[in-house]
Amino acid sequence: MNWDQKTIHTYDKSAKALADYFKGIGARVYDIELGLKLANKETGARVVEIGCGDGRDTSEIIKRVSWYEGFDPSEGLLQLARRKLPGEKFVNATAQTYDYPPAVDVVFAFASLLHVNKKDLRVVFDKVYDSLVFGGIFFISLKERPRYVEEVKSDAFGERMFYYYSVDDITRIASSKFKLVYEDHQKIGETDWFTVALKKV
User: Fold this and answer.
1) What's the whole-number mean pLDDT along residues 182-201?
2) Cα-flanking dihedrals φ and ψ of residue 167, to 5°?
3) How many angstroms separate the CA atoms of 16 and 67, rounded?
4) Do the bridges between strand 149-155 and strand 90-92 make them parallel or antiparallel, or are there none, so unpaired?
C-alpha cells in the first residue's frame, strides 16, 4: 500500500472535519515570531510554509513577512486555505516534490513532516538547504519518540501514516549543513512533541 497516497486521501476526504478539529489549537504565533527573530528577519522576510493545510498559521505568518508561499499535498485542505485567504499563493505539492524558491529566510514546517519518512526527509533537507539564505532558519515541529518509528493511525477521519523522530534523528539528517539553535519539548494530551530551529551554516 502507498501510505503517502493513503494519508493524502484521508486529508482530502476529511479536510473540513480535520480543519474544524484543529481550529481550537490556534495559530502558532510564538513560534512564528521566534523563527523570524532567529533568522534576524523580524520584518521583510521571505517565507515558505511546508504543509500549510487550511491556512491556520498562514494568517499570522503573512502579517509579519514581505513574501509568502505555502504548499500542501492535500487539495481538500488547500481549497479551504484559498477561500480563507484568497490573495495568497498556495501550491499543491509534497515536501519532496515542491519547487523551493531561492533566497528564502525561513521555512516553517508545523506538524507536517511527521508524514515524511526518514529517506524522503533527507531529500527535503537538501532542498530546504538550497532554498535558504545563509543564516536562514528551518523551523520544525514533530511527534517525538526515543527512536524513529513508523505508525499507522486509524480514526474517524481515516487512516494516516505517522513518522516519529527524536531530536538526534533530525540533527543527524540535517548534518553539518545546519546548526541547532533552538529546541523545545512539549506533551499535548498523550503525545510527546518537539520543536527545533536549525540555522543554515
Assistant:
1) 95
2) -60, -40
3) 27
4) unpaired
**Taking residues 155-169, what's their average pLDDT?**
89
What are the C-alpha distances in Å from 9 to residues 4, 33, 162, 190? 9, 32, 14, 25
Tell me if the pTM is above 0.90: yes
Report helix, strand or coil for 5.
helix
Residue 67, classed as helix, strand or coil, is: strand
Q: Residue 55: count other Cβ atoms within 10 Å of its Cβ.
A: 25
**Alpha-carbon separation of residue 100 from 46, 91, 127, 154, 198 (angstroms):** 12, 11, 7, 32, 17
Q: Is 201:177 a contact under the CB 8 Å cutoff? A: yes
Handedness of CA 18, 20, 26, 32 (dihedral sign): positive
Cβ contacts of 2 within 8 Å, gap of 6 or more:
none
pLDDT at residue 90 greater than cutoff 60: yes
Q: Give the C-alpha distances (Å, rounded to integers) separating 185 from 19, 34, 97, 140, 141.
A: 24, 15, 29, 12, 9
